């Protein structure tokens, strides 16, 4: 068995230096702030913010901006959450219409303080988007809802096209970086959705690399996912947000991303995105279109 990979003070690679059209980004930022909306692009300090904002696409984060958990890999603020904004779903739908989005991603912070753990706001947002944008496909990226199946049932019944819940990392590293979440709970969420959702709803998950995982652990995670018939897998590089976050172990070389892609496709995933800048909602529209056109 290989040992955990560790590198002292990894040197930042050139691929992290991205360029984009600042005017387009400013225009998108103004529109979103005018509607009092948050995006995971900005809240999580995503390296693809420039490209996505510049191309007129975004992933909306609801129920925020504060999260009730404090996962060590994450840059989203942790703190006392605000009351649920019942007008937020309408604003997301209005922004989707104004931006002309044909595919929209809706995610959220964890809301362990709410009786429904945030599930009802997902439902309201999906319904609002469908009402104003009947031809727009919808992807949700949900928290684990503490594994509560009644919460999952609500979101499934609302009928998103893609149901995404991130595993984030391999089993051994999960307790080191995820607060209150477990590897098995996330597997249960994905398994339950796959078993109870319509056949037309795709189930998706994503992981980060560079946390100290080994090849064997990544392949075991792939096998665990295929055992429950998960459709899509995204694999990207962990970028340490700040000095208090989980320490980056390595910048994973492109060769390993390519090998993981080959191994994942061999295992039968319908779609795999494996590259340093890949994030779970990055190019989600293109991902869905690629599978639908197969």
TrEMBL record:
Record localization: Cytoplasm
HAMAP family recorded: Lipoyl_synth
Gene3D superfamilies: Aldolase class I
Cofactor note text: Binds 2 [4Fe-4S] clusters per subunit. One cluster is coordinated with 3 cysteines and an exchangeable S-adenosyl-L-methionine.
Entry protein name: Lipoyl synthase
InterPro entries named among the record's database cross-references: Aldolase_TIM, Elp3/MiaA/NifB-like_rSAM, Lipoyl_synth, rSAM, rSAM_sf
Cofactors: [4Fe-4S] cluster
Keywords for this protein: 4Fe-4S, Cytoplasm, Iron, Iron-sulfur, Metal-binding, S-adenosyl-L-methionine, Transferase
Residues holding [4Fe-4S] cluster 2: 67, 71, 74
Radical SAM core domain residues: 53-270
NCBIfam families registered for this protein in UniProt: lipA, PRK05481.1, PRK12928.1
């Amino acid at each position: 068995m290989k040992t955990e990979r560790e590198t002292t003070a990894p040197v930042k690679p050139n691929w992290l230096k991205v360029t984009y059209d600042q005017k387009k980004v400013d225009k998108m930022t103004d529109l979103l702030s005018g509607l009092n909306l948050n995006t995971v692009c900005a809240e999580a300090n995503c390296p693809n913010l420039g490209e996505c904002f510049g191309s007129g696409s975004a992933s909306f984060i609801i129920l925020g901006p504060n999260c009730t958990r404090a996962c060590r890999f994450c840059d989203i603020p942790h703190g006392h959450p605000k009351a649920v904004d019942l007008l937020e779903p309408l604003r997301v739908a209005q922004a989707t219409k104004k931006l002309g989005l044909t595919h929209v991603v809706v995610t959220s912070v964890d809301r362990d303080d709410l009786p429904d753990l945030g599930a009802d706001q997902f439902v309201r947002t999906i319904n609002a988007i469908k009402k104003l944008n009947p031809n727009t496909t919808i992807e949700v990226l949900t928290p684990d809802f503490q594994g509560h199946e009644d919460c999952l049932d609500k979101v499934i019944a609302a009928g998103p096209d893609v149901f995404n819940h991130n595993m984030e990392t391999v089993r051994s590293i999960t307790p080191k970086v995820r607060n209150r979440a477990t590897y098995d709970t996330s597997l249960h969420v994905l398994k339950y959705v796959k078993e109870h959702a319509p056949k037309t709803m795709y189930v998706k998950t994503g992981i980060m690399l560079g946390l100290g995982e080994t090849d064997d652990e990544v392949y075991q995670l792939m096998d665990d996912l295929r055992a429950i018939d998960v459709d899509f897998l995204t694999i990207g590089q962990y970028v340490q947000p700040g000095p208090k976050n989980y320490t980056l172990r390595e910048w994973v070389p492109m060769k390993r991303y390519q090998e993981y892609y080959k191994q994942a496709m061999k295992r039968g995933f319908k779609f795999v995105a494996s590259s340093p800048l890949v994030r779970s909602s990055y190019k989600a529209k293109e991902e869905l279109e690629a599978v639908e056109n197969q």
